[in-house]
Amino acid sequence: MNIGDWGHLSVIVAFAAAMVAALGYFMAARQRPLGEADESWLRLGRTAFIVHGLAVVGVIVALFGIIHGHRYEYYYAWSHSSNHLPVYYMISCFWEGQEGSFLLWIFWHVVLGAFIIRGSRQWEAPVMAVFAFVQLFLVSMILGVVIGSLKLGSSPFILMREFMPDLPVYKLNPDWVPEDGKGLNALLQNYWMVIHPPTLFLGFALTLVPFAYAIAGLWKGELTKWVQPAIRWSLVGGGVLGVGVMMGAYWAYETLNFGGYWNWDPVENAVYIPWLVLVAALHALVLWQRGRTGLRTAYSLVIATFLLILYATFLTRSGVLGNASVHSFTDLGLSGQLLLYLGAFVVLSVAMLVWRWKQIPVSEKELTMYNAELWVFIGATVLCLGAFQVLVTTSIPVYNALMGLFGVKTNVALPADQIAHYTKIQLWMGVFVALFSGIAQLLWWQKNSKETISNTLTIPTILTLLFASLFILLVRNNGLPMSLPFIAVLTTGLFGVLANLSMLLQLIRRGVRISGGAVSHIGIALMLLGILASAGYSNIISKNTSGLLYSREFPDDLNRDNVLLWRNQAAEMGPYKLTYTGQFYDVPGVPGYVNKELLFRTADEYKALARADIKQEDGKTYYKAGDTLEIRPEDTYYRVEYKHKESGKQFVLYPRAQVNQEMGGLLASPDIKLFWDHDIYSHVSSVPDPSKEKDWSEVKEYTVSMGDTLILNDYVAVFKEAEPATNLAGLGLSKDDIAVQADLIVSGEGGKQYHAHPIFVVKDRLVGRVPDEIEALGLRISFNNLDPTSGKFTFGVSTTQKDYVILKAMEKPFINLLWSGTLLMGLGFGMAVWQRGRKPRPAPATKVPRTSKAPQVA
Amino acid sequence: MGWLPSGWSNFSAAFASATMKKTHLLALVVIAIAIGIVMATAGDASVYVSFKEAKELAADGDLRKVHVVGRLPHDAQGNPASLQYNPTLDPNYFSFTLVDTNRIAQQVVYFNPKPQDFEKSEQIVITGNMRNDVFVADKILLKCPSKYVENEVKGATAAR
Which family does the record assign (chain A) (predicted)? Predict the structure, then answer.
């Protein structure tokens, strides 16, 4: 048996063990009150889950072994990895594919299951029954078993010849193995892609825990006790998922070129929606724990969160999005299975909720304006409404598919301007969340009356109004518009920060523990302010001001947001003077980037010869002329110097582009200069097509002597000398052959000098010429002839269009508020988890009888 | 609570004691907002249309942006002949002809650099509207020949 068979066997074992575990735990909990599970069934369930966990680890080891060992006979390794991929990116290939990402999700469930088994005591049997049931479904997605015409799951251990049996090569050689893989999508070759997916899937997995507790509570009729463990897990989940989403946003900001961190792509929305609902659920849970209210809401939202995670999975993995998303997973033809899975969980969990609905305790007391609970409740409602909007819009492709099932052809498309569409609701969600989080936090820690309320609210409110007016004046003074919605975001955002901050300070003064809630609310409000500044006032500085316009058909309302930069020719752009100075490569082991002009490419595209000593800014010489070095040929970095016209300050950006046929041409990634108060974000939007042959002008011949000066296409060149060339790699010269190398020095723009070394060869009595190209000047010089008697040398010179880039650049003011707000939010979640872990709250005061069938007051 | 009208608490107390409870009131408000959200989505949603319909919409003064699906026409040599992009003159002007699913050809202008490999795309989805007999696109989505891969090119409005 080989590694793939072992892997596939492990998948099957994991599947079977999940089934046994589900059965064991189910039987253990069935018809028995909580905490009195049947011992032998429980033991069976537990053992089976441990076997399941070990099998899952086995699957992961096998799959990673295949990727790490470059075993391209397996489709997964071939389609996601390649020979030149560093090990840390092999980790990312692991979850680039659908199967691997399911595996990651399954793995986190195993880890969390282990925590539940260790720590949940009386809850183990019913909670783990839910866990094992979910695992059963998830493992079935990678099972890869075909029964008749029914395909159950897609195995990551499928062989190339099973996946593409029609490749002609298999007719000639059935044992053919590809030599190299297709490689990892270049955009995913980023350190964030090593940690973002695991974080996100951990967040996905964490939503299962409160869901499983909720279902267990419904099942066992323990309608209130589940809240306490569920809160802690929801806190962990909310923090991890929130940070995971923002990691994705940061990756998009750094790597993609749509000019921001959030694009309302369905894949992003699919995670954003459950996160909002999870946070709302968390607040409802806290409301029950503190105010004995909102339990039905908590139940509904906890269950909705998990169902939305499943819906997100369906959206992104079934292919239903089709044209609507840039980066949904490839369609594996599993949509039926996914739909079944989603349907089963929706029906089962909603049915259980309906069954127990009347028994879920409801608070009799009416909340007033003085109750923090009321504001928390309204805040949670606002979050749900925000989630609702994103859900309704993101599901548009689903409506078309749904109507298609009934034979009705619909042609609804996503809004053409998604940003405007989402902003008009999400902005107000932000406003109210910031406002209510401030009010609720101020009221939360004290008993309130009219007196105390005005005392606590006065100072933050006055400060807010003061700062808000100040900022509005500042913005207006800078000649920028400030619309009413923006004023609302600014004011409430400031209020959110100040109200939560004042509570935090009061709590510290009173010696009470620091509130994690207040910290994360400050974070959220800061994020809101950061989004307002960086997105609302994002400013494109690469406006085309050359005056050259192709057409003036639509002069007024269209932006022309890209500028063309000729190599080594400074151009003005906003407050900057820009110069594009050349193409660079990333050379492993050398800091920074290495100029392409210093490298001589070889037949092996991953190797190059150094044409001169490679010295970097630190003064160290990393390679000597003639050394062979390794390069990363996929990425070209375009060096652009920025010089601020007023302050004279300079910096250099290296936006990256990769020519990738498979991904549809040019993959451009921005380079970002960080200042404390703004970012300068720029990317190339077009370059001369490198895969196209250049158009060279007709060759013009020059016959000169050593030391002569030539005028080549506006450039002055000096023919310094010609000398016998020795040790020329790749020419394969023997003793009797002759090679002469000329040295020409061409002066380019700004006095920069370039050396050209065309070579003249006589090999086996045949004349050969190796021309040299000065890319920066668009010159190609060949050494055409030499006449030893007269001392005359003939050079052929042809010219081409000079190298250029088309660049787009923008300014993102105060984007650091967003990132620091994210960190604070994560920190706040962490603090809350820690505090709840240290000091368990007292048991609920009002006990609800376990098997009470008495109707509750609605 | 100086920041609220003085009668507010009396009002809300009276409201609460009335037959309609505050939770019910909240529920009504929530339902109203939810309906508003659905309406807003329906209003903002775009449609897939042909060039003929796009022209009709524009003629009616409806400047809503629409989606059009089409292909590039190819000449006898199999090259897309209609592409016009001269970055040295204006890097922000790209024009081409698109043939929609009803085989109607239409000139399209895209005020951005030409997406790389545009010529090789099999199917193109554009978003925008008709203005003065040309279709002004602000987003281009290319479907490339390789089976699964697609690439979206964001235009001016999307990048803001």
Answer: Belongs to the CcmF/CycK/Ccl1/NrfE/CcsA family.
Domain co-membership, A654 together with A705: no
List, for residues A120-133, the tens digit of each pLDDT value.
Answer: 888 999 999 999 99
**A279 located within any domain:** no
The verdict on residue A172 lying in a domain is yes
In this structure, what token pair is assigned to residue A281? 């659920």
**Lookup: tokens for A760:** 């003249």
Answer whether residue A581 is part of any domain: yes
Q: Residue A546: pLDDT band by 50, 70, 90 thresholds?
A: low
Residues A1 and A61 occupy one common structural domain: yes
Q: DSSP letters along B20-70, please?
A: S-HHHHHHHHHHHHHHHHHHHHHHH-EEEE-HHHHHHHHHTT----EEEEE
Subunit contact B2:A564, Cβ cutoff 8 A: no
Strands B66-71 and B46-49: parallel
pLDDT tens digit string along A295-325? 999 999 999 999 999 999 998 888 787 666 5
Please name which of A115, A137, A133 lies closest in space to residue A124, comparing C-alpha atoms: A115
How close A96 comes to chain B (CA, Å)?
Answer: 14
- Print the domain residue range for A168: 1-184
pLDDT one-digit tens code per residue, A688-737: 876 677 778 888 888 888 888 888 877 888 888 888 876 555 566 677 77
Residues A644 and A707 in one domain: no
Contact A238, A309 (CB under 8 A): no
Give the number of A-B residue pairs with CB atoms closer than 8 Å: 196
Q: What are the respective helix, strand and coil percentages of chain A, to the nearest 5?
A: 50, 20, 30
Q: Indicate if A6 and A152 belong to the same structural domain.
A: yes
Cross-chain CB nearest to A551 (options B93, B113, B141): B93
Question: Are B149 and A663 an interchain contact pair (Cβ–Cβ within 8 Å)?
Answer: yes
Pairwise CB contact (< 8 Å): B37 & A385: yes
Same domain, A162 and A47: yes
> Using a CB-CB distance cutoff of 8 angstroms, which residues of chain A are in contact with residue B134?
553
Last residue of a domain, one of A658, A686, A714: A686
The answer to whether residues A726 and A648 belong to one domain is: no
The ipTM value here is 0.81
Rounded to whole angstroms, the Cα distance separating A642 from A653 reads: 8
* Strand partners for A690: none
Of A369, A378, A454, the CB nearest to B12: A369
Q: Does A549 touch chain B (CB under 8 A)?
A: yes
Q: A580 and A667 share a domain?
A: yes
pLDDT in tens, A176-209: 888 888 888 777 888 888 899 999 999 999 999 9
Q: Is A172 exposed, middle or buried (0-12, 13-18, 19+ CB in 10 A)?
A: exposed
Contact between chains at A550 and B152 (C-beta distance less than 8 A): no
* A725 and A676 together in one domain: no
Residue A36 maps to a domain: yes
Is A484 exposed, middle or buried (CB count within 10 Å of its CB: 0-12, 13-18, 19+)? exposed
Q: In B, which residues are within 8 Å of A378 by CB distance?
A: 26
Rounded alpha-carbon distances, angstroms, from residue A515 to A289, A378, A820? 16, 21, 18
